[in-house]
Write a structure and sequence with these properties.
The complex is a heterodimer of chains A (115) and B (115). Chain A is mostly beta strands. Helices cover 0% and strands 52% of the residues of chain A. Chain A starts with a strand and ends with a strand. Chain B contains no helices and eleven strands. The N and C termini of chain B lie far apart (36 Å). Classes of the chains: A mainly beta (115), B mainly beta (115).
Amino acid sequence: AQSVTQPDIHITVSEGASLELRCNYSYGATPYLFWYVQSPGQGLQLLLKYFSGDTLVQGIKGFEAEFKRSQSSFNLRKPSVHWSDAAEYFCAVGPFDTNAGKSTFGDGTTLTVKP
Amino acid sequence: DTGVSQNPRHKITKRGQNVTFRCDPISEHNRLYWYRQTLGQGPEFLTYFQNEAQLEKSRLLSDRFSAERPKGSFSTLEIQRTEQGDSAMYLCASSFRQGNLDTQYFGPGTRLTVL
């Protein structure tokens, strides 16, 4: 069974500081990995995704993520955080192949940005 | 492309009542998913459709829940005899499967409160 762990429930960073959000996954085959962001009371917005190729993927809003197969990790990074980045961030793993299209999500990391 | 839309955005109901939510996917997307999200948790998969066929249902989807996607376009999720434990955000997502890849785009969600 696939699973996703986001070890940090809550992270606080100062505006302008760098950010790294951790994600570890468990999946028995080739993973299809995502990061989503959710503002309060809103749906999820796709930041970036990884399937294959370059292990460093670029997303929207200046975010990037690095896939490390040996560590089963897909950490999200941003070099300089803006106050508008305060939100909840979800890592998800989806299946490659099969007809089972569902994604499995972590429980999220809440990001607070200090002025 | 107007994105995934969901109606209503908020629903307050009394325990025991029936409720129905609607999801309109992105045009041409052949897959549609329903997830449930409770406070402090990531989205949990409920069910999904490929065109009009319901291909998978989670065991979270008790017999009080039913979902339909007539004609492979919009979908409805009905909850009968609501319970307080049904209070959650119900998220809809759609995707167009290309080969083995499936990227889900989420709607804003319907927040259900059962009194």
